[in-house]
C-alpha cells in the first residue's frame, strides 16, 4: 500500500516535528513542500514564534524552499529588529509613546529585503539567521551559528559570525546538483531518485553524471 503524506506530521509516531507549510498563518512567511521544523521543547507548531520582529509594514518576507530541515531553537530575525545606524543614536525613540513624532519614522531604520532559505538546506539547533540573508541550496548551517551574510550553495558555515568552513562537495558535483534541481521534480520522480540521493557518495556522483548526460 502506498504511504501518503501526512499534512502536518512527517512521521505519525513522532509529533516533535511538523511540516512548516501546514502550521504557518502569516502571509509574509512562505514555506515549500516537505520543509519541517523540529522542536520537542516548545512543540513544532510554534515555528512562527521563532520568526521575530516581523512586522507587516516592513514588507519583508521569510521564504523557505523545499525539503529544508530546521532544528530546535532556530531564530529568524527580520528587518523590524534593525536600529538606525546613520544618526547619532541607535535608541528607537519612535516606538516610545512619550517621544512619538519627534524622531524619523520607524520604517527608516533600514530594510535589507527578504530572508530566503534555499532548497535541501539543514539549519542546526539554535542558529540565528539575521535580516535579508540568502542561504543557497544544499547549505548546512551549524548549531549556534549567527548568519549575517549570504551563504553560497552547498557551503557549510559555523560560528559567530558564521563563516564558511568547507563546501559539501567539489565544484563539479555542486554544479551537477544545481543543474538537477531534484527538489523541483514531481514527487514520484523524486521517490525514484532517493536511492541515488542517499547512496554511497562516490557511486552516486558517477550515477549523477550519467543521468545528466542523457
Automatic annotation (TrEMBL):
SUPFAM superfamilies: Trimeric LpxA-like enzymes (SSF51161). Transmembrane segments: none annotated. It holds the Pfam family Hexapep. Keywords: Acyltransferase, Antibiotic resistance, Repeat, Transferase. GO terms for biological process: response to antibiotic. Gene3D superfamilies: Hexapeptide repeat proteins. GO terms for molecular function: acyltransferase activity. It comes from the Bacteria. Belongs to the transferase hexapeptide repeat family. PANTHER family: ACETYLTRANSFERASE (PTHR43300), ACETYLTRANSFERASE RV3034C-RELATED (PTHR43300:SF11). This is Antibiotic acetyltransferase. It comes from Treponema rectale. The lineage of its organism: Bacteria, Pseudomonadati, Spirochaetota, Spirochaetia, Spirochaetales.
Amino acid at each position: 500500500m502506498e504511504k501518503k503524506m501526512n499534512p502536518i506530521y512527517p512521521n505519525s509516531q513522532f509529533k516533535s516535528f511538523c511540516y512548516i507549510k501546514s502550521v504557518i498563518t502569516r502571509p509574509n512567511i512562505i514555506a515549500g513542500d516537505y520543509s519541517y521544523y523540529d522542536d520537542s521543547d516548545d512543540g513544532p507548531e510554534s515555528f512562527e514564534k521563532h520568526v521575530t520582529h516581523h512586522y507587516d509594514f516592513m514588507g519583508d518576507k521569510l521564504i523557505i524552499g523545499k525539503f529544508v530541515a530546521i532544528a530546535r531553537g532556530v531564530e529568524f530575525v527580520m528587518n523590524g529588529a534593525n536600529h538606525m545606524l546613520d544618526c547619532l543614536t541607535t535608541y528607537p525613540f519612535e516606538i516610545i509613546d512619550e517621544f512619538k513624532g519627534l524622531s524619523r519614522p520607524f520604517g527608516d531604520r533600514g530594510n535589507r529585503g527578504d530572508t530566503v532559505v534555499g532548497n535541501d538546506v539543514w539549519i542546526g539547533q539554535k542558529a540565528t539567521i539575521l535580516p535579508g540573508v540568502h542561504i543557497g541550496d544544499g547549505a548546512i548551517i551549524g548549531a549556534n551559528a549567527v548568519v549575517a551574510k549570504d551563504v553560497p550553495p552547498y557551503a557549510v558555515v559555523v560560528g559567530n559570525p558564521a563563516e564558511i568552513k568547507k563546501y559539501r562537495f567539489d565544484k563539479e558535483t555542486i554544479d551537477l546538483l544545481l543543474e538537477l534541481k531534484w527538489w523541483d521534480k514531481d514527487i514520484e520522480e523524486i521517490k525514484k531518485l532517493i536511492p541515488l540521493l542517499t547512496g554511497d557518495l562516490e557511486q552516486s556522483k558517477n550515477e549523477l553524471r550519467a543521468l545528466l548526460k542523457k
